[in-house]
């Protein structure tokens, strides 16, 4: 299995099954890429799947709990949110609506983090060739579920007028070790942070770290990323979630 996670405004997942004699491919479009469920406003979120390829494709949809430990993403089974339907066959040019249903809301004023995994289900191969290669593609999107009395403050939405805003609170530090320098980011806030367009401002100028997405830091978690050779310090700036502009981060 080859797994690729792509984050963009409109993402295409390409799946190929190849051998020496035959080759088939399908292209799946999935949107939105940032579904959200706020308990005070809705009980489910919509996820659309569209087959842009030339052949039918079987897909499986799962929702897993998402945590971050030891600088890694951890996905575990859960029963609080389910995808309906969990399986779908998409004919070429057709769409499928998947409802992400929240069966057990978080506690008031809190937020839970999940990953929605969409996997291609490959047909059985009666005589798999040792020379053939099968590729099963996976698409992953984040899902955030907010409990009663709160809303996700993503830096762009207008406040709904009531409830507690949940926003990230980031701290950074640069650590130079035997394996090179790393940027450590800690999220002290109650909401996740998606970081993009990240750079380090130094006396010699700005050092870009990520033109697009750098990654996520979940509430209460700490993540790290390697820095380019020769970079040991600087002021970190980044776009956080849906904010239109970069902002400086506070150092630890």
From TrEMBL:
<dbReference type="InterPro" id="IPR008962">
    <property type="entry name" value="PapD-like_sf"/>
</dbReference>
<dbReference type="GO" id="GO:0071555">
    <property type="term" value="P:cell wall organization"/>
</dbReference>
<dbReference type="Pfam" id="PF00345">
    <property type="entry name" value="PapD_N"/>
</dbReference>
<protein>
    <submittedName>
        <fullName>Fimbrial chaperone protein</fullName>
    </submittedName>
</protein>
<dbReference type="InterPro" id="IPR013783">
    <property type="entry name" value="Ig-like_fold"/>
</dbReference>
<dbReference type="InterPro" id="IPR050643">
    <property type="entry name" value="Periplasmic_pilus_chap"/>
</dbReference>
<dbReference type="GO" id="GO:0030288">
    <property type="term" value="C:outer membrane-bounded periplasmic space"/>
</dbReference>
<dbReference type="InterPro" id="IPR016147">
    <property type="entry name" value="Pili_assmbl_chaperone_N"/>
</dbReference>
């Amino acid at each position: 299995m080859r797994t690729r996670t792509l984050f963009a405004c409109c993402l295409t997942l390409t799946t190929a099954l190849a051998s020496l004699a035959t080759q088939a491919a399908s292209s799946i479009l999935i949107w939105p890429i940032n579904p959200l469920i706020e308990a005070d406003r809705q009980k489910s979120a919509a996820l659309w799947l569209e087959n842009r390829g030339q052949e039918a494709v079987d897909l499986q949809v799962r929702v897993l709990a998402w945590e971050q430990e030891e600088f890694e993403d951890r996905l575990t089974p859960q029963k609080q949110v389910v995808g309906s339907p969990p399986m779908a066959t998409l004919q070429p040019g057709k769409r499928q609506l998947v409802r992400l249903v929240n069966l057990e809301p978080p506690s008031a004023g809190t937020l839970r983090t999940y990953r929605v995994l969409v996997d291609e289900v490959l047909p059985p191969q009666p005589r798999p060739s040792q020379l053939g290669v099968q590729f099963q593609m996976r698409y992953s999107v984040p899902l955030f579920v907010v409990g009663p009395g709160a809303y996700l403050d993503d830096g762009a939405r207008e406040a709904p007028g009531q409830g507690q805003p949940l926003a990230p609170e980031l701290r950074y530090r640069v650590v130079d070790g035997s394996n090179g320098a790393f940027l450590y980011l800690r999220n002290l806030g109650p909401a996740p942070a998606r970081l993009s367009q990240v750079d380090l401002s130094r006396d010699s100028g700005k050092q870009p770290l990520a033109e697009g997405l750098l990654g996520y830091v979940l509430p209460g978690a700490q993540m790290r990323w390697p820095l380019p050779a020769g970079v040991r310090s600087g002021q970190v700036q980044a776009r956080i979630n849906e904010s239109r502009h970069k902002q400086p981060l506070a150092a630890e």
